[in-house]
Design a protein that fits this description.
With 303 residues, the chain is α/β, with parallel strands linked by helices. The chain is 33% helix and 26% strand. The protein has a single domain, classed as UDP-N-acetylmuramoyl-L-alanine:D-glutamate ligase (3-Layer(aba) Sandwich). It has 10 helices and 13 strands. The strands form 2 sheets. The chain has a 9-stranded mixed β-sheet. Strands 3-2-6-7 form a 4-stranded mixed β-sheet. The longest helix has 15 residues. The radius of gyration is 18 Å and the shape is globular. The relative contact order is 0.15.
């Protein structure tokens, strides 16, 4: 009998090189690296691992290279993630990210897209769509993301669109507009919201609710805002971590927490509270998959 998942995640599974510096260098100069770690990562990888740890049956659709670390694959399997659509592309590299954070936790990233560039050449990864109730379309090639959204919507799935930082350099006004119009939920941070409004020639966040049913905007230390076309406009306070070590993966943990609350049938405000709590755990250590709380841990901190 085919596995039934609550969440299907499309996006990058990557190897993250996470560096800390006191401050970002000026052009043509250098700064000393204070700390450097290599961690399992990728927006989709982080979210799938976090969601699965919180008890959400999760499918993961992504493309990796011949060089994908065997210990990363074992780790994903240990989390009981549905990996039917995690495909190896022969002759290509696994996506990788170099993420550099300064002492104020601002970040600059450098992305090697690797095998994800093959999305335009492969058949649609249907298993993740067919087996899931919610399809989360994250980073990836815009044309492929549009195919996923359209297919999921036709099959009656709840569709979330979350291009993350790729909204700045992978998407343009035309491609962004085409994908978001196939989505029910749009996730972004403040910087990404500004670009989305510019692409769509809209003035304020609320205007996006003419296109999607739900808009979720994370605002860093100030928490998040959740708006719906039904009139909800919720300010979700931040959940304080014990310490802030590295913010890589905090947004992915937030989304995983939100979906965990949704699966439990929680009210929108409570989904936001669980999301904030999940994100607070993610920032307490280096990497997006290293400080993984249980559902009990998250609820204790959220409520």
């Amino acid at each position: 009998m085919p596995r039934e998942n609550f969440l299907g995640v499309f996006g990058h599974v990557a190897v993250d090189v996470i560096c800390s510096v006191a401050k970002f260098p000026r052009a043509n100069t250098c700064e000393a690296i204070v700390d450097r770690r290599t961690e399992f990562g990728g927006t989709a990888g982080n979210m799938a691992v976090f969601a699965a740890t919180l008890g959400v049956p999760t499918a993961l659709a992504s493309l990796i290279g011949d060089d994908f670390p065997a210990d990363y694959m074992r780790f994903l399997r240990s989390k009981r993630i549905d990996l039917a659509d995690l495909k190896t592309i022969k002759g290509m590299r696994t996506p990788s990210v170099i993420m550099v954070s300064d002492s104020s936790h601002n970040q600059i990233g450098f992305v090697d897209q690797g095998a994800i560039l093959a999305q335009g050449e492969i058949a649609l990864q249907k298993h993740t769509i067919d087996s899931s109730k919610v399809v989360h379309v994250g980073t990836g090639r815009p044309k492929y993301s549009l195919q996923v959204c359209r297919s999921a919507r036709k099959k009656g799935k709840l569709v979330a669109f979350d291009p993350a930082q790729e909204i700045h350099y992978v998407y343009n006004a035309r491609t962004f507009s085409s994908v978001i119009r196939e989505a029910d939920i749009f996730f972004c941070n403040e910087s990404e919201l500004s670009v989305a409004l510019r692409y769509l020639r809209l003035k304020k966040a609320e205007d996006l609710l003419d296109i999607v049913d739900t808009l979720i905007v994370t605002v860093g230390k100030r928490g998040s805002r959740i708006m719906t076309c039904g009139g909800d406009d919720l300010t979700v306070p931040p959940c304080k971590p014990k310490k802030v070590v590295d913010t890589t993966g905090a947004g992915d943990a937030y989304r995983a927490g939100f979906y965990a609350g949704m699966r439990k049938g929680m009210a929108l405000a409570d989904c936001g509270a669980v999301a904030s709590a999940a994100a607070s755990f993610a920032v307490e250590s280096f990497g997006g998959q290293t400080n993984l709380p249980s559902w009990h841990d998250v609820c204790d901190r959220a409520f």
